[in-house]
Each structure stands twice: as C-alpha cells, then as structure tokens.
Amino acid sequence: MIGAYLYAAARTPFGRFGGALAGVRPDDLAATAVSGVLAKVPHLDPETVGEVVFGNANGAGEENRNVGRMAVLLAGLPTSVPATTVNRLCGSSLDAAMIGSRTVESGDADLVVVGGVESMTRAPWVLPKPSRAYPAGDAAAVSTTLGWRLVNPKMPAEWTVSLGECNEMLADRFMISRERQDAFAVRSHRNADIAWTGGFYDDLVVGVPGADLRRDEGIRPESTTEKLSGLTPSFRPGGTITAGNASPLNDGASALLLGSADVSDRIKAAPLARIAGRGTHALDPQAFGFAPVEAANKALDRAGIRWDDVGAVELNEAFAVQTLACIDTWKIDPDIVNTWGGAIAIGHPLGASGARILGTLAHRLVRDRLRWGVAAICIGVGQALAVVLENVSSETEQP
After folding, report:
1. Paired sense of beta strands 51-55 and 111-119, if any
2. So which residues are the catalytic ones?
3. How far lies 389's CA from each of 28, 46, 304, 366, in Å?
4. Which of 168, 207, 257, 359 could make an S-S bridge to 8, C-beta 3.0–4.6 Å?
5. For the domain bounded by 5-122+247-390, which CATH number is listed?
6. pTM for this structure?
7. Residue 138: how many CA atoms within 13 Å on its side-chain side?
8. Backbone angles phi, psi at 360, to 5 degrees
9. What are 51-61's pLDDT values in tens digits?
10. How would DSSP label each residue in 325-345?
11. CA-to-CA distance for 251 and 120, rounded, in angstroms?
C-alpha cells in the first residue's frame, strides 16, 4: 500500500470566546487555514489537489452547507478541487486527517488537504421545528456552542450528563485531586508561553486577515496554582473542575497537507512525517475523557511500536483531569506530553483541534529529532481518535 505523509501544517491563532476572532466567519477562518498551508508549498499547483476533507463539530450556522467546499472556494482554489466536511465532534479534524491519509494510501488521490474549523462565538441558537403550524405554546432557543442539544428522550440519563460532570466522575474514579488538576493547568499555560516566546509556533501559525491577533489569545503566563485554587467549581458543589483547569470556548481553524512519497519531487518539498498508525475507540458516553487510552494503544499496535518508543505526545486537553487519567494509565513520562502547551492554554475550537495537535506533533518530532509521536483526542458521547507519526527526516535521536 502507498504510504501517506504529512508535508505541511498551518493554523490560525486561536481566539477567545467573544474575542479577537469573534467578527470572523467560520468559513473565512477555514479559508485562511487552507491558504496558509498551501502557501508553505509554493511549488504546488492547486489544480493537483485531489481532495479536501474538513472537520466541523457544529454545522448549524455560517459554516453549514459543507464548510470544506466553502473554504476551497473562498481560498481561491480552482473550482475543480472537490471537498467534503466530516463531523466527529471534537475529533472532527483528526478524523479528516485519518480519512485523508487513507485516501492517499488507497491511491484515490496523491495530494489531500485536511483540517477543521470552529467558531464557538458565532454558533447560533436554534429552535426546534414545530410539529404543526402556529403552535400555541412557547419555544425555547437552544445554544449550539457546546454539548448536548435537543436530546432524544430515549437516551439514558447517565449518558447525557454535562461534559463537566462526566469528568467529575472521572476525577472520582481515578482519585485525581483538584490540586493536581490546577498544577497541570498552570503547566499548560507556562509551556505555551515558552513555546510562543521561543518562536516554536512561528512556522505553524498564520494571521487572520482583518483580525489583530498574533498568538493564541487565551494563554495566561501569570497563572499560578494559588490563583486557580480560588476559582469556584463549575459543575458540582465541592467539585474539582473549574474554568481554570478545563479548556475554554474558542474560535480558530487548522489545516494539513497530506500526500504520497511520489509528490515530493513535484511539489519540491520533503515530508515532515509518515502516518504510521491510526486508532479509534468507543466506550460509555459519560466516560469519553478516558477513551484516548485505547485509541492510542490501537494506533501504536498498528504502527508496530510500543510506548517505550514514543518521544512526543500531543493529547488534547479537554479537561486536566482526563488528560492526567490518560497519562497515568499509559505510564508515560508527563514531560513528553504537550511540551508546547495544550488546549487549556491554547484553546479548543472543537473542529480545529485534531489537526492542530497533529501539525504540532510533526513539528515537535522534527525540531527535537524524535522518531515516533502520538496525537490523541477525546470526543464527546464516548469516543476517541489517535494517530502515530514517524519522523522521516534524515536524523533522529531514537532508534
């Protein structure tokens, strides 16, 4: 089978809810990411892009009607370039990358652009459609920003509790303290600030036209465990999860260029990494935060390696507690996880996060001369995805 390789990565800075990107439509954010990743490979002829696969978790507002195709058109690509949009909630853009890599491996296309977008600020309120004209009762508008909406009454109640309560249950199960979660959150902000200050994101992040935002808006380098300890629990009285140790609501987009080995000469670019393994896993909806454990284990098995071989991990920090639960279960060195910061600091615009972590992972592998890396993400309603990358540059410090 043909191998699939990651050639380039680009993303926008991630904006706060109601922040610097609040005025930018999600389809424009998506177009910015697509233009940004193609600009990194100037010898690539856009006509030769065989497919675009974009992730989006909402689909209820301005990104509706296939935001992948809208991004292609708004980015000025030829109208002959096809595109589709996929939705696996928080894992949407990592799912897009997995689909794109299979497309390359099967020979259906030798160049594929993948990515994802979310504007959680601009997510609309929706009304359920009445069963008959002119009903006499009231109708309530439902926010599509995050979480369950218009829940089917046949769903068991334990499946439809809030995302935060799901992770409070995880904290109880694994006895992960509030103090430990807060300390992990501070680390996320510190690492993200160090990475930005050190220029690690200079080759990854592209500016958004019309928006005055040069780096991820939610990073708080002044954060301390003392400050976080004073925050009120968000989901249950006396609970452990607060606004400080969970990922925020965000706006942003990300994109990756995938291709076969054969396109390297044509586009005059060397690949960063090979897609070496993929894994999916599902379990009870309320335990979604723990699902990356088995998704990553499956991806490693398919890549033919073990955790001992892995030098870098990008695990999306939906909540500090679920990230810690996964790290503890894998029994890996926490220092290899999210070395350049994670979603608690950087942000989690749902549909964009998977491609963000995969692009960051590829750049970490190259910069630190590491051979193997894992990107993993938990997904609401009890799922997770993971991808193993192999650094294909000439020198690595790992066997």
Report:
1. parallel
2. 90, 348, 378
3. 29, 25, 12, 11
4. 257
5. 3.40.47.10
6. 0.97
7. 3
8. -60, -40
9. 999 999 999 99
10. HHHHHHT--GGGBSTT--HHH
11. 6
